[in-house]
């Protein structure tokens, strides 16, 4: 339970001044996640760089990121850059910056090289990984790690690929997708990633990102079943969809407060800051 004197504030756009100035002026406030660390997740390249650097192998499984390329300008050069980087079609094209606008979540599937010139940089081009249409959402709340299954994009077969050309926009899967927890899934696709692997991934990412509240979108490759890919990391995701999140939060917040206490800058007030 919380100390009765503790105030919990859910604050949006809290910092009208520099975060460092705010913290200096209000040492009584425990800031759970610093805005500059959150900022790191607003760029799809820097977001996944930490995963790429982790080099996680556990229980005979490996976690990595799909092969990807950043295009900052000049759409005409994309087919050449893709060929030089050795990226295989189909590709998922994602806006480089994730700023909370719907445009930053407008994704395309690109089936052939020549149509890549129609894309609008800056963007990230990522190899599409066949993963059986199921995505694992790994929720992190401090030490708590919980994984759920969500529907995702279906596999694309070689035969389909040979028949398809062009760019295809696809709807925002996360907002549309209902939970896949109760679906009648192929056991091979439904099998959750090994717990030790998830715990290690969450712990190392918490450390590297300097964040406590985020989720990781993880997919498992269909052909090489020991290979998992992180495709997205979201700060302060919709925890409302996570069963039992209330208890995780009520356990997490006092522990975060205590760790602040140990550093000698204990606050009796909590503010969870969302910046967009
Ligand atoms: N490399 C990939 N291989 C296969 N499928 C992918 C890949 N990248 C993304 N997807 C699919 O596209 C969806 C959206 O991708 P991503 O999460 O990167 O974008 P987003 O803009 O953050 O979308 P959302 O807000 O829905 O999470 C994923 O949930 C997954 O179904
Ligand atoms: Mg996502």
Automatic annotation (TrEMBL):
Signal peptide range in chain numbering: none
Superkingdom: Eukaryota
Keyword Kinase: yes
EC number: 2.7.1.159
UniProt GO BP: inositol trisphosphate metabolic process
Binding site for ATP: 44, 94, 126-137, 152
InterPro entries in the cross-refs: Inositol_tetrakis-P_1-kinase (IPR008656), InsP(3)kin_ATP-grasp (IPR040464)
Residues annotated to bind Mg(2+) 2: 232, 234
Recorded family membership: Belongs to the ITPK1 family.
Residue numbers binding 1D-myo-inositol 1,3,4-trisphosphate: 105, 137, 234, 238
Descriptive protein name: inositol-1,3,4-trisphosphate 5/6-kinase
Keyword list, A-Z: ATP-binding, Kinase, Magnesium, Metal-binding, Nucleotide-binding, Transferase
A family per Pfam: Ins134_P3_kin
Cofactor binding mode and count: Binds 2 magnesium ions per subunit.
GO MF entries: ATP binding; inositol-1,3,4-trisphosphate 5-kinase activity; inositol-1,3,4-trisphosphate 6-kinase activity; inositol-3,4,5,6-tetrakisphosphate 1-kinase activity; magnesium ion binding
Binding site for Mg(2+) 1: 217, 232
Cofactor(s) essential for the protein: Mg(2+)
Oligomeric form and interacting partners: Monomer.
Domain Inositol 1,3,4-trisphosphate 5/6-kinase ATP-grasp per the UniProt entry, residue ranges: 61-253
